[in-house]
Amino acid sequence: MKIDYYAYRSGMKNWNAGIKILLSVVTLCLVIGLNRIPVSLFVVFSMGALTLLAGRIPGKVYFHYMTVPLVFMIVSGAAIALEFAGSPAGDWNISMHFFYLCVTKEGIRTAAEVFFKAMAGMSSLYMLAFSTPVHEIILILQKLHLPRLLAELMNLIYRYIFILFDVAHQLQTAAKARLGYQTFAMSCKTFAGIAGNLFLISLRKAGTYYDAMLARGYDGRVEFLTEEHPVRAWQPLCCICYFLLLVGIRFAG
Q: pLDDT tens for residues 13-35?
């Protein structure tokens, strides 16, 4: 919900959504394809600067979201760098009595490349998420000939998630007011009760909202009012220069 909030307040919200999607997706593909740490580092800092300066996203918020997958990335990198063997092997090894924990320079290099590629990919996608509301992304996908039914379902499901969040928050508040989290056993029982009630309420609300759509003339097509942002000449030019810079960094290194 916070990402959606900042997307509507972003300094880049008036940029053409197609350009932002192009910049994010092509950058992600180049990071994976070029597969060099300098390229990944450049993307991390450049996309971070774009999100913070042009998007005017608070630094504390951005760095918080960047650290969310950090533990997973570190664990994944360790799994790549470390190897198990029955005898001493690799450039460094530690005896664990029944086996050896081995590390090679090649394994460390591969782990570092994967780690920084993941960070670059996250910074690229966060640039898109913090600057583009979801309905604009869905509209671009629809223009790219995504089946209309899928586009409508994506939009409706996304909006319905916020309704369920609100209902779940109300149920949780009511449970706390009734001391439903005093003990571990009581917490488990409260959680099960909230989950069951949320399922039943979601079914009821789905029927209610469908009736509301029919009352407003729903005929199988959902029309969404969107604001068009024209492509300015400097935007594709800057994107091309950025992509060429990434390729140049790859071959310069």
A: 888 888 999 999 999 999 998 88
Per the document, the length of the chain is 253
Name residue 85's beta-bridge partners: 100
Is the full-model pTM beyond 0.70? yes
Burial code (b: 16+ CB inside 10 Å, e: under 16) for 90-107 equals: beebeeeeeebebbbeeb
Cα(97)–Cα(249) distance, rounded to whole angstroms? 45
Phi first, then psi: give them for residue 237, nearest 5 degrees: -65, -45
| CA distance linking residue 50 with residue 150, whole number of Å | 31
Pair 51, 126: CB distance under 8 Å: yes
Pull the structure tokens for residue 91. Answer: 């450039």
> What is the distance between the alpha carbons of residues 12 and 21, in angstroms, rounded to a whole number?
12
pLDDT in tens, 101-143: 777 788 788 888 888 999 999 999 999 989 888 888 888 888 8
